[in-house]
Amino acid sequence: xxxxxxxxxxxxxxxxxxxxxxxxxxxxxxxxxxxxxxxxxxxxxxxxxxxxxxxxxxxxxxxxxxxxxxxxxxxxxxxxxxxxxxxxxxxxxxxxxxxxxxxxxxxxxxxxxxxxxxxxxxxxxxxxxxxxxxxxxxxxxxxxxxxxxxxxxxxxxxxxxxxxxxxxxxxxxxxxxxxxxxxxxxxxxxxxxxxxxxxxxxxxxxxxxxxxxxxxxxxxxxxxxxxxxxxxxxxxxxxxxxxxxxxxxxxxxxxxxxxxxxxxxxxxxxxxxxxxxxxxxxxxxxxxxxxxxxxxxxxxxx
Length: 302
What we know:
- The chain is mainly alpha-helical and about 300 residues long.
- It has helices at about 1-20, 25-35, 40-45, 50-65, 70-85, 105-135, 135-160, 160-165, 170-180, 185-215, 225-230, 240-250, 260-285, 290-295.
- It has one domain (about 25-300).
């Protein structure tokens, strides 16, 4: 049964790619590179540097709460290892491989990774709602109400300690709870602010890649949070195929061709996921030797 579940993302990748391939004009897709504006593309690619440094910086500040003497370089290396492992897993689960750099403190670092990702998801959900306010006001308002209920529920959960004491052994949920509860509010606020900056870089890159191929409204850049959230569903490796499909669907309202939408989607993936992942592979040959328990939560946390 477990082997079947592991194969599902690969099956999803093949099926989604096959469906998209039926509607793509490959000659048009190849010729798009001749239409692209080189300077605009250069700016979009250059934004990858502040994006990566900012992502590593917010991870560095979190790490310091458990490992005070950790260096920014170690945090950056750990982050890139997670990016590399996430290339081969659905829903970016490979980012848990960050713990491989700190084997003596795996449990506490695992909790910090979860906290970091939880902040990412929270900000992404907020941007998702903002996108829907533009895309469909009624759906956006519904999302605002649902988000308010979710935030209220989480705040009550964080203040409560009764449910944690009833759990006989540590789990990933209790570790995340302790991680969030033990972090100073200023640090969580800083992490959230840096996360907003990172998503802002990605949205700007998305818009620049798109505008380099076709003149469109700047509102199109607000579609990226919807694309990112939907493509995080664990039905494909690295969201490939699913991300391109939702990009085609959303950008169709701006009269963007299938080929252009796919080119933009793959470009954003290349500079924000593939490139950092490849750097992680090059800088850390130990990643090839990682054991399964270094990439997935230990048994006592599953």
